[in-house]
Amino acid sequence: MSHLSERLAQLKSENRAAFIAYLPAGFPTVEKSKAAIEVLVKNGADIIEIGFPYSDPIMDGPIIQEAADIALANGAGANEVLEILEFTTNLDVPAVVMTYWNPIEQYGISKFADAIKSANGSGVITPDLSLEEAKPWINESTRAGINNIFVAAPSSLPERLNQVASACSGFVYAASLMGVTGTRTSVSSSAKELVARIRETVQTPVCVGLGVSTPEQAKEVATYADGVIVGSALIKILLEQSNFETGLKELATLTKSLADGIRQAR
Amino acid sequence: MSTTTNLTGGKPDVSVGHFGEYGGRFVPEALVAALDELAQMHIQTQSDPTFIAALDELHRTYSGRPSIITEAKRFAAHAGGARIILKREDLNHTGSHKINNVLGQALLTKRMGKSRVIAETGAGQHGVATATAAALMGLDCVVYMGEEDTKRQSLNVDRMKLLGAEVVPVTSGSRTLKDAINEAMRDWVTNVADTHYILGTVAGPHPFPTMVRDFHRIIGDEARAQVIELTGKLPDAVLACVGGGSNAIGIFFPFIEDTSVRLIGLEAGGDGIETGRHASAISGGRPGVLHGARSYLLQDKDGQTRESHSISAGLDYPGVGPEHAYLHDIGRAEYRPITDKEAMEAFSLLSRTEGIIPAIETAHALAGAMKVGNELGPNATLLINLSGRGDKDVETAASYFKNLENLKM
After folding, report:
1. Is B172 an interface residue toward A (CB < 8 Å)?
2. Confidence at B15, pLDDT banded by 50, 70, 90
3. How many CB atoms neighbour CB B180 within 10 A?
4. Catalytic annotation present for B387
5. Range of the domain at A202
6. Cα gap B115→B110, rounded to integer Å
């Protein structure tokens, strides 16, 4: 069982949802992203999702695009992603990598699965790896002993949703809405419905991402989902605050209030 | 028929659109239901007499098909004396081959009951064609265009606006065609319920490469018959410029089984492959996944897309359609780079010898014809897809040649 699955099971027994925090690796630099991850962990993030910065992130809105551009400009690549993954897992927190498919294919599918495993990563979220193309990855990630996490969408028809959810291990990533990552003023009602639909087909935990930005929204999602994924709202703080140390303080405050919201949900 | 290229070396698989190891579908799950619907709709309509008749009528009475062929005798003197036959897609309504695909997809949009279309555009030709079809069929239209391209093709921006479309300048990434596609994809993921994405080339996730090819094969179907009628035989080679590769696959496809006919795609070589400043995905890239499909692309060691460079906005794209990747690997088609300089010489030459100002994209094919004509000699017949007209490029060309003169002085 992966560290991720253990933690999700433990939180389930405590009757609360997990707080999954996302940051792109190497944003704004390798060392600063490590510092930011430490802040997330100290202030209540249960699981860390590390983004592999990519030049053409079609599932991401302007905030993550900008952060990825900065990370890439500062030299983030596969080695930096793995370095930060290892740093994170050394903090004794489960960590997964989120990456578009091409970086995995170019690194080598088998080699990438092994590298995630040897950095003690729990798994990989692949937002643009359609099921039809996923067999080599499912084989290699399974062989390496890491989770493969696919994204389910509100538009998925029942049979397809079943296939996507069944292919997931660790958790199923439920996209809260039809759209890209970014902050929203409210959580779409389609999120709750999608979680319920997924639960009808699999026992795997279901975590909700896309557009969750405030403690109130996180609390709402935490009433029904196994995990709440927050990314853009955290990154936005670091993008907007020109002084990094001040940014970290603001990040700590938001992280803590998101974590509190999630803990108070049930 | 909606089949993939059926030649040895690959396993054509219509259901997920593979061309050998290329193509396929690498997209956010949110788009899968829409792509499935589109693929099904495409297959159905390919044999639906009502749909075929509607598209045929639009071709005849709106875009002006069949397009003629023109023999370029004075230009031929600069191409080793080979017989040069131009397929005049520049004479289509809106000035390029792009209208063929757009009319087909706009009809599909209506059938699917969607009310809004979006498109990406580089040179603006596909955007203009989409805006035109949207106006004709009463669809809302938003065109994404890299900010860089809105400057170098400002005439087409104004055309789109006149046609009632909203043009969104894209400021992310390299601010060119690649980023316009990213932005269109993001719009589509968000609005897929009422919106169809009229992708303008034979790239992207299945069914786009197959479907767009099927809407453009009319170029090759007509040209093949016209050349045989004129010359009594098949041409020795068929040439076309390749960015994403829609005009090329359109004219190549009906010749694929004619193994005596060489198929030659001309990629944008920019400043030259050796400089790294080019847009030649096949000649200067390697296989990877971009915009929903596996194909050749320009990328660094981590799989980050590299920026492409070309004087031609329409070829300035770091990828290429997956069927071209496949045709290249099995050796059925050849792909060569043409530099900006070579393309601009051919641009000028065709204008002065034939009274036809080609698009700068198309000029790459003409530069290729000059080379291939010289290689094959006066007994050869070359069929070139004259994919678009150059009105939109007048400003770019004027400043290019002016700079050249200044350099000489």
Report:
1. yes
2. low
3. 31
4. yes
5. 3-263
6. 7
Give the tens place of pLDDT for each residue, A106-134.
Answer: 999 999 999 999 999 999 999 999 999 99
B182, A155: Cβ pair inside 8 Å? Answer: no
CA–CA distance, B37 with B27 (Å, rounded to integer): 15
Of B63, B89, B96, B98, the active-site residue reads: B98
Tell me which residue has tokens 């596609």: B181
For A264, other C-beta atoms within 10 Å of its C-beta total 13
The size of the A-B interface in CB pairs under 8 A is 114
Closest Cβ opposite residue A102 in set B172, B173, B289: B289
**Assembly ipTM:** 0.95
Side-chain half-sphere CA neighbours of B316 within 13 A:
29
Contact A57/B at CB under 8 A: yes
**B29 and chain A: CB distance < 8 Å anywhere?**
yes
CATH code where residue B127 lies: 3.40.50.1100
Q: How far is A155 from chain B (nearest CA, A)?
A: 6
Which residue in B has a C-alpha nearest to residue A161's C-alpha?
A: B29
Q: Shortest Cα distance from A1 to chain B (angstroms)?
A: 26
Which of B183, B208, B233 terminates a domain? The answer is B208
Helix (H) or strand (E) holding A114: helix A109-118
Q: What is the share, in percent, of chain A residues with pLDDT greater than 70?
A: 100
Domains identified in chain B, total number: 2
Same domain, yes or no: B295 and B315: yes
* DSSP category for residue B236: S
Beta-carbon-side half-sphere exposure of residue A50 (alpha carbons within 13 Å): 36
Percent of chain B with pLDDT over 70: 96
Closest C-alpha to A164, from A209, A133, A193: A133
B303 to chain A, closest Cα gap in Å: 5
Residue B13 counted as domain residue: no
Does the residue B399 lie in any domain? Answer: yes
Domain boundaries, position B389: 66-95+216-408
Quick one: tokens of A251? 């990040």
Question: Which of B63, B114, B120, B308 is labelled catalytic?
Answer: B120
A60 is catalytic: yes
